[in-house]
Amino acid sequence: MYDNLDLVLYKGEQTKISFLDNTPGYLSELTSEGISQFGHYINGYLGSLKISITEKRIKIHDSSICKYYLGNNFKTLNKGDTKKAIEKISDTLHQPFNKSTVTRIDFSSNIITKYPANIYYQFLGEAQYYKRLEQNNGLYYNNGLRQILFYGKVHEQKEKKIPIPELYIGRNVLRYELRFRKKLKEQFRCTDLLAEKLYDETFYYNLIKRWKNEYLEIQKINSKLIEMRPTGSKKELIETLALFSILEIGQPKILNKISEWQEKKEITKKQAYDLRKSLKDLSKIKLNNNGNELIDELTNKIKQLSRYA
Questions:
Q1: pTM score, whole prediction
Q2: Model confidence over 52-89: pLDDT tens digits?
Q3: Which of 14, 75, 79, 210 could be bridged to 204 by S-S, CB 3.0 to 4.6 A?
């Protein structure tokens, strides 16, 4: 389930060999060399991995370990393959990258869905502590430390003119990805986070659980309106009609409008909070016993993946 990993090996007890004198010769391609505020640096590639070297550290960044090891980033790496990939990097660069510090983790999986990926985005609402942003080929949830993504993997491959694996040709593939981008030691509550931890069984399965739970915490929006239930209550009728409007316009658009009012000082922070809470409460109302077919499909498949990953 690993894709991108940023790893930094610092010069110290683990290795005393000069990085600048020895490591560049093991790279498959050198791209630049110069002097920065951190001193002399050399940049290049090890296969598809971006490598940056100074006297004090070797950094692998903005690259898919999965693509390096398997030849493409359509798949993801389980804990066993991750161990082998890091061992391969260590052997090639002649450095103990199992002792490198992990500074970014992209944890993801492909979900084969009944419909194109973009059909599902409108039913994924707000998530606490994240800002929701819908793009042409993806739905993003951002905060200062993490990012949640949903996007069409086949569409991405076609845009980049990358061959699609035979297993996925002609199928709808939604990629669900959880990215840990900053302060990983604080997020995982550990004194250090070394690469060898990535294939520790407890750490790996806790990461799967977190991947599942981050999805479950996203508010799901009801949409399948078969019929209005009979009611003699004016309040219930008005709430049902309001829900129809939310579903028609889209909860995220209404929430964005409320944020706009607040930024313009047309309503107070307290009023904005109350309005957002009312919208979210309305979106939870069940109008039929069948629920949302698309969300049920997505939820069941994510739970199943987490169970057998």
A1: 0.80
A2: 999 999 999 999 999 999 998 888 999 999 999 999 99
A3: 79
